[in-house]
Amino acid sequence: MSAPASSTPSFGRATISDVARAAGVSVPTVSKVVNGRYGVAPATSKRVLEVVEALGYETSLVASSLRRQRTNVIGILVAEFESFSVELLKGASSAAAKAGYELLAYSGLVAGSSPVGWERRSLSRLAGTLIDGAIIVTPTVLIPTTSIPVVAIDPHTGQGGPSTIDSDNLGGARIATQHLIDLGHRRIAHMRGRSDLASAQLRESGYRESLAAAGIPFDPDLVLDGGYQTAQSAEAARGLLSRSDRPTAVFAANDMSAIGVLQTAAELGLRVPEDLSVIGFDDIPEARTSTPPLTTLAQPLQDIGAQALQMLTELLDGGEVPSRVHLPAELVVRGTTGPAPTA
Comparing C-alpha atoms, which of 136, 119, 5 is closest to residue 76? Predict the structure, then answer.
């Protein structure tokens, strides 16, 4: 059934009154139908739903939440949408569909605002009216007790606050560095991440521990700040790779930094991996399409997103979850690492 042309709104969003008028029923009847309540004849319900579809009517999520105290929506809050958070979002989205929840992806870092505390601002806007619970990706501060359940992925400050899930940053960094050592490299640089992030600190610690275990002296001149950013890492690598005593290998704290190193190596005419080996961390999609394809430590990003969603639904159902879930990172060897060049 299609709504009469005269009853269809000429512009703007269809209202519940528009639906009632087109279906020839009262507003309370439409409300009962769209909210799945009893007391409406099947034929009437069918007619109302046909008009709802024809007009594109959507109920107000906020109004529904106030009536039911639940929205059946889970928020995934990120500072910004980039490859790392998008991979987490894919996993969370798949798990949400299976659990019968909708997922609201929200970017909380507004241009010109401080990056510290964005998650608190986001929670204050969304909690209780738009979302039943939240997954917060790399929160910058400890999240205090909130009005809704919260699960944090890879928090900047490390363990603390709500339940958290992350991968083995320390162990993964050891594996990455050991891979280069096993290939015969002894002069290994590290393009570290942001100094304020626990993940970056752990990855640098893993690098240093592997060097020590192999009897390779730590050289602070081989550690540079890449900030987890491609452009910053590319610039930092320029001075490093232009030196006469340049390293034969670089362990970058994430894939975006590793890609920056690859860009600079290409500009300087260095062959990868013949002249320089490079390894990253994360295994974002860009790692597979870089030139050459990037060897990296793979975080199970989609699994992390899915498990965070499952933890949150368990909390919403009144259950208990571990305070921390720790997933392994695995070495993925591609085309950017090879034997150390001979003198």
Answer: 136
What integer pLDDT is reported at residue 45 of this predicted model? 85
Distance CA 16, CA 181 (A): 67
Q: Find, among 202, 250, 195, the residue nearest to 228 by Cα.
A: 195
**Is residue 313 over pLDDT 90?**
yes
Q: What is the pLDDT of residue 132?
A: 87
Count of other CB atoms within 10 angstroms of residue 22: 26
Integer Cα distance of 185 and 220 in angstroms: 17
Q: In 111-253, where does DSSP find H-type helix?
A: 118-126, 169-182, 198-213, 230-241
Q: How many helices (H) and strands (E) are present in the chain, helices listed first?
A: 12, 12
Please give the single-letter amino acid code of residue 304. Answer: I
Please state the pTM of the whole predicted model.
Answer: 0.76
What is the tens place of the pLDDT at every residue in 155-204? Answer: 866 555 578 899 999 999 999 999 999 999 999 999 999 887 888 999 99
- One DSSP character per residue, 62-83 reads HHHHHHHS---EEEEEESS--H
- Among the listed residues 138, 194, 199, the one whose alpha carbon sits nearest the alpha carbon of residue 170: 199
At 136, give phi and psi (nearest 5°): -110, 120
Select from 139, 124, 160 the least CA-distant residue to 77.
139
Helical (H) or strand (E) element with 138: none
